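Allow me, if you will, to draw on your knowledge of protein folds for a short while. I have a record of one protein: its chain in single-letter code and its fold written as discrete structure tokens. The full record is reproduced below for your convenience:
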Amino acid sequence: MKILLVEDDKTIASGLEYSLQADGYETVLCHNASLAKSVINERLADINLCLFDLSLPDGSGYELCQLVKQRGDKPVIFLTALDDEVNVVMGLDMGADDYITKPFRIRELISRIKSVLRRYDKQIQTKTRTSIEIENVQINTLEGKVYKNGEEILLTALEYRLLLIFANHVGQVLTRNQLLERIWDVAGEFVNDNTLTVYIKRLREKLEDDHRHPTIIKTVRGMGYKVGD
């Protein structure tokens, strides 16, 4: 596994590189955004995961994340001292898969890396499966049908697309902006914030045992929604 590490603080970067290599990861270290962009443009295919500091002397982790997501589907974790929700949500909206605030323990970071990589493996498997199970809900992607406890649940086309988005990102927090962008891209029609609220409410009413206390489509306060652990 090869990790692209972008951190301008050379002391922190050296410690992170040592710890990652000790845990069996190969690292590509950059101290600024300019060098990182060159690596992303030329060697992204060889990278398995990106660790980006948000504040860099010649740019930010945000723009690096955007570049990665434009060029390929690679997981990105932000390293940041900014732990307020505005910055975190903005990072997630740009496609980041997780974030960890400084100071952090190296074992926690390694655990987050492994969790994100496992989630990506599951997403790849999910996209190629013809049957997906989330608790007592089954999705047959060949037939485009959804079942709960073996009984078919009738969903509208947009409800089904929204459910597939969640199914393809099990364990990942999805912000409302991320959901709106994905529905719009797939459906080819405009979906506003109020409409999204309605569709999530409808999905919960159809799929949850108790839609007032959802266990499948869970709300992550201040962030968005999450399916699975």
Q: What stands out?
A: The two ends are 23 Å apart (CA to CA). The longest strand covers residues 2-6.
